[in-house]
Amino acid sequence: MPGFVFATALCANCRRMFSFNPHLVPSIRVNGKKEPVCQICIDFANPKRKENGLSEFIVTPGAYDPLPEEEL
Predict the structure, then answer these.
(1) pTM score, two decimals?
(2) Residues paired with 5 in a beta bridge
C-alpha cells in the first residue's frame, strides 16, 4: 500500500502553518536558510513583483500536495 508524506511548517512570510511537498515548495532565504512560502503569500506577491519588474515566483505543480513516500 503506497503512502504519502506532508511536510508542515510556518510560512516564511505570514507565519501561517501549511502543508507542502518539501522538494517542490517555493522558498526564500532567511538568515541564509531556505524557508517555505505558502500559496496565499505567493499569490499576493507575484502581481507586486511583476509591477516592480521583478521575476515572479514559480510554483511547480504539486508544490502544495503530499510527497509520495518513495520520493523521500
Answers:
(1) 0.87
(2) 67
